[in-house]
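Figure 2 data, in text form.
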Amino acid sequence: MQSTSIIIADSQYLIRVGLRHILEDHPSFEVVSEVTSEVQLFKELKNNLPDILMIDYNQPGCFSSLTIDKVRVEYPQVRLLVISSDEDKKTIYQVLENGVNSFLSKKCDEKEIVGAVYATSKNEKYYCTNVLNHLLEKSFPTECAPTPLSPREIEIVRLVASGLIAKEIAGKLNLSTHTVYTHRKNIMRKLKIGTTSELVLYAVNEGLLR
């Protein structure tokens, strides 16, 4: 089985060592490089393109949210897994809207980290409980406008935002996977959104995860 190649981008030595230690316990993961600055990162991406980039953008002088933007533009095939100590809601929203695959807090345990890497390797979304809770605690005020979604669609939005994939949702609701995908397509059309990140933000703002 082909391993998933990973670059760790973090200026903190202990974080890099800890992540490498966790990932090396799984033969399907391969850490191909560690970088400590944006300059090093783009040199490495040019020569050794990974499947996944694990990055903390919240490190002034080393990485920023603009680093995420540059990677998305220059290397769109690289999947982005953010592991950050950032607690600023607006910045987190911005990064999510820029299309990262997964977002973890540095408070996450090994199980969540490994789960996020597996999900990201399959091009799925993964948001840890800490990040979702933080967004819920500080969610923007919602307007009293009626939702355009049916009760079933709201249920599916809630499950997607909780981190479940289509197959898991299908089993939970006793539906076919095709039906779940159809509902999801209709939801995206009704809400005029195009990414799972936007769907999660919609669920947070509407209080659907409470």
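Caption note: The longest strand covers residues 29-35.
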